[in-house]
Amino acid sequence: MKPERPERDERSGSTEPSEEPDAQGRPIGRRVFLGTLGLGVLGVATAPTLQRGLEGALGAVSGKDPTGLTGLLPNGGGFRYYSVTASVPRKTPATYRLKVDGLVDRPHTYTLPDLRALPQSRLVRDVQCVTGWRVPGTPFEGVRLSDLLDAAGVQRSAKAIRFTCFDGAYTESLTLDQARRPDVLVALRMQDKEIGHDHGGPVRLYVAPMYFYKSAKWLSGITVTDRVRPGYWENLGYDVDAWVGRSNGRGDDPTS
Fold it and tell me: Is 80 within 8 Å of 36 (Cβ atoms)?
C-alpha cells in the first residue's frame, strides 16, 4: 500500500514529516524528501542526457519514496503507488479470493468472477493524498461495500470493519457507519480499466471521502468487528478518521 505521511505529526507537533522506515526498514526522513525534490527540479533544467540519467536514478528510488513527491519529478506520471512490504504475491482471476467474515450471520468467500457478477457502482472523484498531491476526476467502479455487508448479515454487536490485504502486512479500518456510505467501494476497475497489480489489484478498497491511505490495496479480507482496530499507518501516527480536509492536521481547506 502506498504510504502517505500526514502534514503534521500529532505526536511531536512537528510541521515536517517525521522519519519513517521504507519497505526494507531503512528510515526515510526530511533530508531525503527535500533532496529528492531538489534533484527533480534540477533535472527539469538540465541537458537531455543528464536529465535522462537523473530520471533513471529517481525511478530506482521511487518505489521507496513514502511521500508522493516523486509525482512532481520528471516521468512522475500522476499516481505514485507503493508497498509497505518488499514484495507482494500476484493474484489472478483463478486464484483471487475475498473473505467476508467476523460478526456476520453468513460468512462468504468471493472469487473475482463472483464480484464481477454483482451490481456495480461507478464513482468519479478526486484522489487525495495526505501529503498534498491529488489526481482529479478519477473513475472507480466496483461493488458497494454496504452490499457485501448486507449479504453477509451484520450482527447487532458489530461496530466496525477491519480490512486485511494479501501483501501480508497492510490493514485498515472503518466504523460500520462509514463502511455503509454509498461512496465506499470494493473496487474492481480504476480509470476505466481493470485494476492492475501495482495499483492494488485485482481488488482494492476505495474510500472516496477520505485520504488515500484508507483505500487499502490488494484487498483480501473484510472482517466485521466489535470495535475499531487502527490500521497499519494509523499505528504509526495517522488519524483513524481520515476525512479529506478535516484530519491529519488539515482543518482549513477541505479541497487541499
Answer: no
User: What CATH number should be reported for the domain holding residue 109?
Assistant: 3.90.420.10
> With 80 as the cut, is the pLDDT of residue 78 above it?
no
Check: CB of residue 200 under 8 Å from CB of residue 1: yes
DSSP state of 52: H
Cα 1 from chain centre:
5
Q: Where are the alpha helices (DSSP H) in the chain?
A: 30-45, 48-62, 112-117, 145-152, 176-179
Provide the domain limits for residue 208: 97-236
Cis omega (within 30 of 0) on the bond before 6? no
Mean pLDDT, residues 29-35 taken together: 36
Quick one: CA torsion of 143, 102, 2, 90, rounded to 10 degrees? -80
Tell me the sheet residues that pair with 186: 143, 205
Give pLDDT, residue 80: 64
pLDDT exceeds 50 at position 3: no
Q: In the structure, what pLDDT confidence band is assigned to residue 217 with cuts at 50, 70 and 90?
A: very high
Task: Indicate whether 153 belongs to any domain.
Answer: yes
- Asked if the structure places residue 118 within a domain, the reply is yes
Q: Looking at the chain, which runs of residues are DSSP E strands?
A: 20-21, 27-28, 97-102, 108-111, 121-128, 134-144, 160-165, 171-175, 184-190, 193-194, 204-207, 219-225
Contact between 140 and 125 under an 8 Å Cβ cutoff? The reply is yes
What is the distance between the alpha carbons of residues 149 and 44, in angstroms, rounded to a whole number?
49
Q: Is the dihedral of CA 145, 148, 151, 157 positive or negative?
A: negative
Query: Are the beta carbons of 96 and 202 closer than 8 angstroms?
Result: yes
pLDDT at 132: 78
